[in-house]
Fold:
Amino acid sequence: MAIACKRFPDQLTIAALSLLSLGGCAVGPKYTRPAMQAPPAYKELTPETSQDLGWKQAQPADATLHGKWWEMFNDPELNSLEEQVSISNQNVAASTAAFVAAQAVVREARAQYYPTVTADPSITRSRQSANSFGGRSGTAGAPGFAPGRSFTDYSLPFDFSWQADLWGRVRNIVRSDVSAAQVSAADLENVRLTAQAQVAVNYYQVRNQDSLKRLLDSTVMAYQQSLDLTEVLYETGIDSQEAVAQAGTQLEATRAQDTAVGILRAQYEHAIALLTGQPASSFSIPVAPLEANVPPIPYGVPSQLLERRPDIAATERSMAQANAQIGIATAAFYPTVSLTASAGLESTSVATWFTWPSRFWSVGPSLAETIFDAGLRRATLNQFRATYDQAVANYREAVLTAFQQVEDDLASLRILSTEIQQQDSAVKSAALNLSVANDRYRLGIDPYLNVITAQTTLLSNQQTAENLRMQEMLAAIQLIEALGGSWDSSRLPSPNDLSANPPSKPSGNR
Structure:
């Protein structure tokens, strides 16, 4: 309903404008990101090693690690699994909900910039006692207030309250909550990246088990042929029963290894089901041995790492949040100025309720200042200063850890590349040794024990070669994760994004 009313006195307007003019002052330290010296280049990389391994430094126009980084492995099965992480992974879903909640907290904080207006309409039926003090006084002659009579009070009050942000307390609360929401957004991206990397790790672990299964299957067939040959030689009197027993023992032991491969494969497959938000009972991955090679990974320069890692972005935003909290604690030392007003219509008759004589109003500022708190505010300020120092240390530790992880993975890739070449040579030598041992056994020169030794040596070296290739693939995935995947800090939501209603959600990889 529309209520006609006159303007408040000019004094009220002057007071309100005076309070608003004071709103530009803010206390507390200005936030500046602490300096962190980044090395000019990664120690593990030289022009020679980069060329030998096919690595390349990321250039501004290089989009290799942008978007869906897993597509550089050229595996459609992996691509399909990675697409499901952002949709179905429950850790990602929980982190997304946490970010939306943090975004709502920002809007809650921003609401403190504005006044609160409430309405409390009421219709009250009352009767005053004829024996009360009021009933025995002159109020008996007032209309509707005679002793012993009943009356109805019709009231439509509107209350206005507003606290001037003179010292930047509300502004620092908003800054703190914005930084907290950005921390939540970076945490979400870190959870997403971790899940994506873990899917890739488990996927290539499955492929490694498939490669080992293929190797052991072929080895079992070879051992079966050796056993058949030994039995023939035994039956013709050329070899002994001991050789037959040795060949049978080796065959069954290898069959047991072949069977055991299924345990790890099933566990890795179940882990992928969990990461992609699917029941393990209805999830399966087709058998396919590991055939992929490690793709060239653009590693960039160390200074770029500070902008690409979501965990570093989270710790940096935590510093900004802690800095804003110092400003909140500092504002507590200054007085609080509030403006309150009340206006409305009140009458004892519904017929005159909405008439001009039924109006009432009150308005006035108030000031509050804590005189004595036994050092509470000082202790609170010291607490937030220490929290900021802790956040700075956490930030620097996160940066140093990131440099370490990248160097670790670069070193792993460099060393594994050399080790794989050496191991492949060992496999060739072991295969040649087995061929010679088989020939000498067929000619009756050496006992079958020499064949068993050569077979065991070859199988061991072949298994080592398969595992090294798997380790190389995992080191590549871990390097991509250490580099921050395809994320960078420019994708953190801005204060305007965080104030949007309805809230916007991070979209993951673009």
About this structure: Strands lie at 116-119, 122-127, 150-163, 336-347, 359-368.
